[in-house]
Write the structure tokens for this entry.
Amino acid sequence: MQQHSYPFFSRRSFLAGSSATAMLAASRPFTLPAEDKPLEFAAGKAEHCLMIWLGGGACQIDTWDPKEMGDPKAGKAGSYYKAIDTVVDGVQVSEHLASSAAILDRYNILRTVHHEVIDEHAIATNRMHTGRPTSGTVMYPSIGSLVSHHRGAVDPAVPPYVLIGYPNVTRGPGFLGPQAGYVYLTDTSKGPVGISRPENLTDSRQQRRTDLLRQLRKRFLNENPGKQVRDYDLAISQALDLSGPGFRAAFQLEKEPDSRRQAYGSEFGQRCLLARRLVQRGVRFVEISHNLNFVNGTGWDTHNDGQLKQHLLIRQLDKALAALVTDLEQQNLLDKTLVVVSTEFGRPASFDSGGGRGHHSRCFSVVMAGGGLRTGQAIGVSDELGMKILEQPISVPDLHATIHYAMGIHPGTMIYDGDRPVPTTDGGMPIRQLFS
């Protein structure tokens, strides 16, 4: 079993139960009992988090941490693309990230994220989403579910957590239960599956149906007061709220100016635009999957020939990400919204026999933008091939702690698996340079 140290609490406070949880959540900056080690810097004030997921394993040295050029035909390890300067002195990125390079002062690049899962995409994806090693006995909640659990939605008429992508247990609530789960969709024009109305069903007609159903539900609850029935009735209430005009209006992308929609670009870009609209309506956490149907044939898992069209993915990401950050800034939402670009692991500097790359988890990049953080930084230093960490390793628990703390959630706050207290993060420490 992997051992961790937890700098935020002692054994006594770990077992203290709900009173400790209430105390941890009471104020900002958070303080802990006197015998424990408090954080020496204030938590962030972000209200929302948008996480862009690059499924397959994005290559760090072909994107955010470029190195000397390699040559797959000659067997020379190195980057596949040229590096370009950015608006941040001394920081370069891939030539295919030109739009982001021009506004990189709104970003932070975390170049030394690491874990030990190499060959299993599913296990690595679970690690990056839950912040913990996969367990055979415990289903841990995802980062989206944790944020949903701690912060809830800004508006009760919208869900706190939306997944724009295919449903997966890794993104789910684990032992927190369905109340911390997500609403998902794959088609930006139709909205979430199961709550879209027929086109001929008007608001007034829907309201009459809802009123009648409410009477029937009340009678049934009185006759059947068990927990399962109450939980099911709560799910019905939530579904009815989501089918109302307020939440459904978020999916009317055609109401955005044509110039803005064009700035976001592809279908992935439209998902990012939808994410901004969801944030405006009070959704707390949105995960946006990139390249749902493998635009380049392999996604970010660029073995063999997948490397040849990797630039298509990078350009698509760059266009949409830069448009999202710029749009959030123009809407006065960037300081309130933390944008995270993550992936399950990176890729090695050497090329495989087919000219592509394998898997590498010992050093890879994650990007953050906005969120009220101190931006314009490249944090951590990798070696000349982006394979080893030279300065400031960032563990996955550290990454999660940073996201939570940016949103005002103390990383040591207890959650409960039944009666068993579990800290929000697996001993992670927020990255100090990002906080004022």
Remarks:
- Residues 11-68+116-196+283-307+331-347+357-434 form one domain.
